[in-house]
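Same chain as my last thread, 236 residues:
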Amino acid sequence: MGCDSEIKEIKDEVQSDEIDNNEKNIKKEENMGSTLVNRKMPEFKVEAYDAKTGHYTEVSNKDYEGKWTVVCFYPADFTFVCPTEIAAMNAKKPEFDELGVEILAVSTDTKFSHKRFVETEPLLKGLELMMGADSKGDMTRAFGVMIEEAGLALRGRFLFNPDGICVAQEVQAPMVGRNVNEFLRQVKAWQHATKTGEVCPAGWVPGGKTLPVNTDAEKMTGRVGDYITIEEIVKD
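reply #2:
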């Protein structure tokens, strides 16, 4: 049941001695570029606008140590899909707070742009999110979501557990917004699985049936259908 095992950080493996240093660096970049899942949160420090207080501040990866955290990149202030996503996350903030989840929204705009965006966009009235200003793009590149030719971020959303390990990520092109309700479901599933050692089937919601691979792995192998039906998996 390797795919259901405990989350552990992926370490970069040293290549063969026959490969020169340049080839090693290329392989490392190829291995790390596609996903952050099972890796530590990249180190970062950026200026930010705290929409809750209306003040400028600074945030870094150290501020989120020991916490469930979502880092949510979006392409740009003063665009069209972006304020709908930010407003949706803010509307669900009380639920994220109840789950102990910190939210950091990030784009390559400046902190001044963030402030003006929040003050003028009607959808963002009452916004309480922290908005990272990655104007140099270093953080966006570290998370692997920079659109270099545009200097903007893809729609990248990353969930980190309290150990700082990325357990889920979703990256999309700019044209389509993400679903905050589905993300909340995933957060609840990850927290349940982390706490119990059980695993959550497709579409799991709190109160739904889990798969007790921590106690019945051998019995379940090849017989998952004895534990759960397709109707239970796809029900609304």
